[in-house]
Model the fold of this input.
Amino acid sequence: MAKGRGSASWSARVIVALMLVSVLVLQANYVHAATYTVGESNGWTFNAVGWPRGKHFKANDVLVFNYNPRIHNVVAVDSAGYNNCKTPAGARTYTSGKDRITLSKGQNFFICNFPGHCEAAMKIAVTAV
Done:
């Protein structure tokens, strides 16, 4: 059976429209992502443990850690590393002093693993929905 005139171009338009909608839906998560500066104007420092309190984080939000890299760092750890102030094998360590870390859905834990810093509450636990 022969196709009607213009049916191929109509199909192409539908495919392009569906692709455009898909791209827009995928981009929607990133458009709504927020950026938070850990510790606000104080930056990433001692007694940061309470900083997340009262904030509502979402997956793909970005945490900005500002600190002096000669005396601090940021280590993404698991809950045991957070609770025990221990860096597990394979943990990602950030050392730029201006780190931008995108949150994953669920629990996210960060510590400074310089001696005594995590124990001095230089750690945060963030839950992203």
Remarks:
- The radius of gyration is 22 Å.
- The first helix runs from residue 7 to 31.
- DSSP finds two helices and seven strands in the chain.
